[in-house]
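FORM 12-B: Structure-to-Sequence Request
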């Protein structure tokens, strides 16, 4: 838990049982996974003025799911088709005031990265006024450990 008083945000990390051993930079793909996670987290921070942001890691015998949930502004359903397109900036004064420097490339690039790593792509579940959950699934290979960050027990 990390509380940022200036933004009234709480940060959480949630890993399902059985997914405990993470570490940084164990291979080229890990750098890219980490960059996508940084991008998703950065977006959550931009659009969440108060509430919480949670990095969620889960998995089963076939895949890992890596995602970021927030209690921020959320995205209108009719705007969600713009998210993964080049220069797909969301219209609306509330979005522009929170992200006045964004040009609409981060999610498109991140989506292409996870596809190159074997994912079907980034999924967005969002409700305007309630928050968003962006996640991607990656295939799990025998003996593979997910490498993003290190958690010590």
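FORM 12-B RESPONSE
SEQUENCE OUT:
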């Amino acid at each position: 838990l990390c509380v940022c008083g200036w933004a009234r945000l709480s940060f959480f990390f949630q890993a399902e049982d059985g997914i405990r051993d993470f570490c940084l930079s164990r291979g080229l793909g890990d750098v890219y996974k980490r960059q996508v996670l940084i991008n998703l987290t950065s977006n959550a921070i931009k659009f969440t003025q108060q509430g919480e942001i949670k990095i969620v890691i889960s998995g089963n015998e076939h895949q890992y799911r890596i995602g970021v949930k927030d209690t921020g502004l959320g995205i209108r359903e009719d705007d969600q088709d713009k998210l993964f397109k080049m220069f797909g900036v969301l219209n609306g004064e509330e979005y522009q005031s929170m992200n006045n420097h964004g040009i609409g490339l981060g999610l498109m690039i991140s989506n292409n990265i996870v596809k190159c790593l074997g994912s079907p792509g980034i999924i967005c579940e969002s409700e305007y006024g309630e928050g968003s959950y962006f996640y991607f699934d990656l295939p799990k290979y025998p003996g593979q450990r997910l490498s993003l960050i290190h958690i010590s027990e």
